[in-house]
């Protein structure tokens, strides 16, 4: 019988979270053996998968970059290729790239209390392989890499043009001189529209059922540039990072406490960016409050610039049916199109679709409660990384990395084999993500729950978490060590 390979820590996913997790181990626990299982044949996760025109970050890079490895330069919202280079450079610098096993789709992971080990089964080239690990760390994000979300559209089979989802953008798609309709109004849509308009399309229409909050921001951080000249790259990164964290946090807090004020400020900004007399209240006035859904940032107002120049427009309406040559809307208006882009969202998938079990009993995520939004009640030696919905993903990913390092250090120093959060039955449960975005609401009932008080509650507040998670006692009475 062949003995399965064993490592101290097994990480699922070699994207932004997985590379960061592995780098934390490499720099803080160099004696720890680890492997990274990546289902695709390359690293980078989202930033390699998405290849649509204009793909870029929707958070500023000085907070999206890792805390331990500064994002250099003053670019605020970077393009996808630059982010991918940054991730792979980080992997090389910390030797993470030598630990990644590509083409490994994790299918199942079972915890055995008698041996205090995980047995992880992966599908590799049509075969099944197993590894064992003392600690399992899911860093696969929270959406399905196989397919994005596309609702059913009446009559789509009649359309004589091409229908494309941004998650699977064809390399050979020729858009020169084409009439393009982008269905959607989220971060992907507001990125695509100006990029397509500048890329030779005859005209681009963003078709939305309802508006989104869109806020122009500088493509380059002028403060970062000036600070770099004064104090150098390293210190300017630290200062800029904290400046941007403070601004993000302040905007979110004011949005929740004074939504009408923020709505007015955003509207005033939109009016200044758009042509005189533009129907701002039709196309840029959402029915929900700021930050009920994620706010879209556009570098140097590129979406508004494309509208001003007549290269793009926005239509707020519902689709009645596809036609042979485009779309017919419920208002009766027709949109002629050669290409329709369905920027209609993502499908969520927890833990990369892996099925977890403890001593042979399947773990139903919806029946667990998330401890500090990074571990699951009743599941030993397991952590997961999911970032913030109201700030840069990596802010939370770095906190999770630091916390897991502390857990592993304590396991090693005390000679204990396992650690598991034990749920308090008196803590009431609420949805893990209090977020109105469609991709969340479609599956929120399948996700782990959160509690109504610490350490089971999720604050969505980096400034709070940076204090409480970094200083949290590991013998808090909730974590059981054995």
TrEMBL record:
This is NAD(P)/FAD-dependent oxidoreductase. Gene3D superfamilies: FAD/NAD(P)-binding domain (3.50.50.60). Its cofactor is FAD. It holds the Pfam family NAD_binding_8. Belongs to the FAD-binding monooxygenase family. It comes from the Bacteria. It comes from Nocardioides cavernae. Keywords: FAD, Flavoprotein, Monooxygenase, Oxidoreductase.
